[in-house]
Design a protein that fits this description.
Two copies of one chain form a homodimer.
Chain A: E1 5-11, H1 22-36, E2 44-48, H2 52-55, H3 61-68, E3 75-80, H4 85-98, E4 104-111, H5 119-126, H6 141-156, H7 165-174, H8 188-193, E5 196-198, E6 201-202, E7 212-219, E8 233-242, H9 257-270, E9 279-281, H10 287-296, H11 305-308, H12 327-331, H13 338-351, E10 364-371, E11 376-384
Parallel strand pairs in A: 2-3, 2-4, 9-10
Antiparallel strand pairs in A: 1-7, 1-8, 4-7, 5-6, 8-11, 10-11
Helix pairs in contact in A: 1-3, 4-13
């Protein structure tokens, strides 16, 4: 099998970038990744993006961004799988390099949510659900998460407060990430006292929509020159798995089966067990999705995922650090860019460049982004190349 | 290099399918391709789609369609590059199989334009242009084609009527395609007498927007069982190339440089010259794009592309048959499905299953779909496997 490595990374700060256009955001991340990759020049560009056609009236981002970045005549297209778009774009970049037909590929995640507000954004986000059967009834992703959380509380007899462990960790981790949207730790009191968004979800159970771009430069290790400035990170496992899009089409609304299968496939390819990873960049668009992901990935029994976030197990110093740079909740939910941000952050950890958020002796990272309630799960195992 | 072949094909009739949902259209094409592929089961699904998020309020089509087609837990995502989406999805499918990591891949193009009309569709189509600099001024794809056509007439001193050769050929070829939207030949008088859409474009210079889905089953030849019911078609060349998205960013608005480079790369990979192909499924969203494509692909000098369509050269019995099943003009412009329809039609030709439209002794086909004014060009060389 052809080995694929990440040689360069780039990201913009996450936030409300009303003064930076979609193409400029992407350009900043691309320039950073090429600089970090010591000038290696990509032949292709895979864009992870979710909603630019709806929110910014812009499709065909591949040609737009490739040209704007001065990458004349390269191969470029958009890869879309809602919130898993970034992970799916990474998967395509991985396959392209693995095919041996492309030597260097740039994977860019870019999203600009905050140019629109209110019902425009709600309707846009709802395109990621089943339009004919869910969105048409007025269901939104947050309302869906609320239904799942309510069901979880009923099924396992737990109180709303048990979900607070997730945002407490992510907000604590956001403090040390200079690119995070929110860099303030919160207490359990802050969590329990927060306003309800969609009952029982409160403000801290939902990741904020934000603008941002991140980029990864992929190549084969033999193409990286001697004396390269960074350790290389190998993509040792890669998988993309789909489930029923509509929640009502699943036999069990609390089982994220695509998460389970996707983790299994990626870990099998990497020749490891999930427990062998040193950190897990999971998809915390809502606290309930994070808890269910921990369970489906095999780190906790059904109904017990929230406990991992209570006892330090998932903190930076714990056995399984999650969302080490703040996750979607504190870094910000950048839609189709999430999967690329997660991979950039995992690379920082594996290189030992994560600053005060460094996970000690991080060798292997599990990275996963989800589309909808894990209707799509994109999972990668990243590993320090030794 | 791993060899990649097309083992199964499927398509729905093209038209205004107000009674068939997006997912049902896709399903029909998938079922047809799997049946044609003698039951080979795909592990992945790449969807070529352009505007479902805007027109149907539906993104994450990968999960939606994979689940609806009963393809549990397969890999699936959308590949978008405006009108080149279908060709770009085929490119991703090709790379995925070539990587050796996936054995069987389904590439599906699906588009449903006609559920919306008027300004909704105009605005949706304009997302494929440069939103910040072109669409914002009110430019539409048709208006842009009109500007290019006017410029061509001025530059080369030709009358509007010279473009009529293209729709005369496509409409003649549509007669023999039972899946075509329009199955009626037209005369030069009909062409010259037609109403103006965007001066100088008339009704026959613009392909009609239509609904439809088409599918291709890709695999490696060694995985196809003995006694397979059809000849296999090899993908011997594949390329995806981008140019400046905005027309005003190009030094020469009449040179489709991405077409030229993309044809060069695909033919080089296939080890042939463009003149070695037996047919050219080109992208005739407008007559001017077809003429410029013939020139950029190297079949005619600059300013002379229209002549090829005058003298029988591009007819079914000619030296270089184009749009052999009616092209976008007579089959219908199915947006992100176009590139997949073109490949399906080329496979029919190479298998000798094109009925009354059969190109005699067709061995090699050049297939190309374009996003915008060839801001993206996806080109494939398909070849009968002997």
């Amino acid at each position: 099998m052809t080995e694929v490595v990440i040689a360069g990374i780039g990201q913009t700060p996450v936030g409300e970038h009303w003064d930076i256009s979609l193409r400029d955001l992407a350009l900043k991340a691309i320039e950073a990744a090429i600089q970090d990759g010591a000038g290696l020049q990509p032949q292709a560009l895979y864009i992870g993006n979710m909603l630019a056609p709806v929110i910014s009236g812009q499709s065909q981002l591949g040609a737009l961004i490739a040209d704007y970045a001065g990458m004349g005549w390269v191969e470029a297209c958009v890869v879309e799988a809602a919130g898993a778009s970034g992970g799916a774009a990474l998967r395509q970049g991985f396959l392209a390099v693995a095919s041996g037909m492309l030597d260097m590929v740039l994977v860019v995640g870019v999203e600009k949510f905050t140019d629109q507000v209110g019902t425009v954004v709600d309707a846009a986000l709802a395109t990621g659900m089943d339009s004919d059967y869910e969105a048409v009834q007025g269901l939104t992703p947050n309302a869906q998460a609320a239904l799942m959380m309510r069901r979880y509380m009923y099924e396992y007899g737990v109180a709303r407060e048990v979900f607070g462990g997730i945002p407490l960790i992510t907000h604590a981790n956001g403090v040390g990430n200079k690119n995070a949207m929110f860099r303030k730790a919160i207490s359990l009191e802050t969590y329990t006292g927060a306003g309800i968004v969609d009952d029982p979800l409160n403000l801290f159970d939902v990741a904020p929509l934000a603008d941002g771009a991140a980029a990864l430069l992929l190549t084969r290790p033999e193409l990286v020159p001697q004396g390269f400035p960074h350790p290389l990170v190998r993509i040792s496992g890669s998988s993309l798995v789909t489930d029923a899009l509509a929640l009502h089409d699943r036999p069990d609304p609390l089982e994220l089966k695509a998460v389970r299968i996707s983790v299994e496939r990626a870990c099998r390819q990497a020749g490891i067990m999930p427990k062998d990873v040193d950190l897990f960049e999971l998809y915390d668009a809502s606290s309930i999705l994070a808890v269910l992901s921990l369970e489906a990935a095999g780190f906790a029994e059904r109904g017990k995922g929230w406990q991992l976030a209570q006892d330090g197990y998932c903190s930076l110093q714990g056995k399984l650090p999650i969302c080490t740079m703040g996750g979607l909740k504190a870094r910000g939910n950048t839609g189709g860019a999430v999967g690329v941000y997660q991979a950039v952050e995992a690379v920082l950890q594996l290189r030992g460049q994560a600053g005060q958020n460094q996970v000690k002796n991080a060798q292997r990272a599990l990275v996963q982004s989800l589309g909808g309630p894990a209707a799509t799960a994109a999972t990668h195992v990243l590993q320090k190349l030794t």
